[in-house]
């Protein structure tokens, strides 16, 4: 059984991966308390003494708006932290998997597949792309997009449960009508990842949902899924909604030309 050391094991995506694949791999979760990724000495020490086959790096600075205010911290974590782990893993002669994001693209000329060249428009996207550049062609890069849980009652809150909870409280929600996102079921990410870990190759892969739609359309689907009032979902333009906030890729239609190994789901299917 492959031994998978990983960061981010308690996060939204990581916790579900561990839960679903616990019988397929031996997971070795590393908490921030014992493994501060921007502390190179600590990273080297832990990895030198760790018995693993593949290192799965999920942990990241992911607050898109806050990253604009704390640029140095975002780059320290997503760039330098990734470099610290990767160099230690490489020195040990082991394999490395870096989980990245659709935010490395600018969202202007979709769709985006594994061959498109990133052009990030936010600090968060730029910092994640910095991590990609460090490991490119020497490790596996897996890009995911707007992850959500299949069972919305479990674990950390995702955007589906956030919208559902607001609708349950009968609150009006403004959602963007003129942009695209590609929501991805975390269970699909986990099972796609299972194949990739067992068939490791230092390439870029997109593990993303089968359907791209506007946040406004997504909100309507969420309302119907849980028999809630979809009239509470109101449309707003991208420019209005994100005024004064970090830029997001406007047309984030992400596809995969390489995923012939696991069928990804349409939104909330």
Provide an overview of this structure.
This protein is of the alpha/beta class and 269 residues long. The protein has a domain at 3-149 and 183-206: 3-Layer(aba) Sandwich (Rossmann fold). The protein is built from 9 helices and 10 strands. The chain has helices at residues 12-21, 40-48, 64-69, 71-91, 123-135, 159-168, 186-198, 215-225, 238-241; strands at residues 3-7, 26-29, 54-57, 95-101, 140-144, 147-148, 173-176, 184-185, 204-206, 233-236. The chain has a 6-stranded parallel beta sheet, covered by helices on one side. Strand 1 (3-7), helix 1 (12-21) and strand 2 form a beta-alpha-beta unit. The radius of gyration is 18 Å and the shape is globular. The model has no long low-confidence stretch (mean pLDDT 96).
Explain briefly what this protein structure is.
The protein has helices spanning 12-21, 40-48, 64-69, 71-91, 123-135, 159-168, 186-198, 215-225, 238-241; strands at 3-7, 26-29, 54-57, 95-101, 140-144, 147-148, 173-176, 184-185, 204-206, 233-236. With 269 residues, the chain is α/β, with parallel strands linked by helices.
Structural class, from helix and strand content? alpha/beta
CATH domain class name of the domain at 3-149 and 183-206: Alpha Beta
In the CATH scheme, what's the topology name of the domain at 3-149 and 183-206? Rossmann fold
Q: Number of helix segments?
A: 9
How large is the share of residues in beta strands? 5-15%
Average pLDDT works out at: 96
The strands making up the biggest β-sheet line up spatially as 2-1-3-4-5-9
Form type: globular
Report the oligomer: single chain
CATH architecture classification name of the domain at 3-149 and 183-206: 3-Layer(aba) Sandwich
Percentage of residues assigned to helices:
25-40%
How far apart lie the N and C ends? 32 Å
Residue runs with pLDDT of under 50 for 5 or more positions: none
């Amino acid at each position: 059984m492959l031994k998978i050391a990983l960061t981010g094991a308690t996060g939204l995506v990581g916790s579900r991966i561990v839960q679903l694949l616990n019988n397929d791999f031996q997971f070795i979760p590393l908490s921030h308390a014992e493994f501060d990724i921007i502390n190179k000495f600590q990273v080297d020490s832990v990895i030198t003494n760790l018995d693993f086959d593949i290192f799965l790096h999920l942990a990241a600075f992911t607050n898109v708006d806050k990253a604009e205010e704390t640029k140095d911290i975002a780059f320290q974590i997503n760039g330098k932290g990734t470099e610290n782990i990767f160099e230690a893993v490489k020195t040990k002669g082991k394999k490395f998997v870096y989980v990245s994001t659709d935010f490395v693209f600018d969202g202007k000329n979709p769709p985006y597949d594994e061959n498109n060249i990133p052009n990030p428009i936010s600090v968060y996207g730029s910092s994640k792309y910095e991590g990609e550049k460090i490991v490119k062609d020497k490790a596996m890069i897996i890009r995911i997009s707007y992850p959500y849980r299949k069972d919305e009652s479990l674990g950390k809150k995702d955007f589906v449960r956030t919208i559902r909870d607001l609708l349950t409280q009968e609150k009006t929600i403004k959602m963007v009508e003129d942009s695209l996102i590609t929501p991805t079921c975390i269970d699909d990410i986990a099972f796609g990842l299972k194949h990739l870990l067992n068939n490791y190759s230092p390439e870029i892969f997109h593990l993303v949902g089968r359907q791209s739609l506007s946040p406004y359309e997504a909100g309507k689907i969420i309302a119907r899924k849980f028999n809630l009032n979809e009239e509470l979902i109101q449309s707003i333009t991208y420019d209005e909604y994100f005024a004064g906030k970090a830029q997001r890729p406007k047309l984030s239609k992400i596809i995969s030309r390489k995923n012939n190994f696991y069928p990804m789901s349409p939104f909330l299917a």
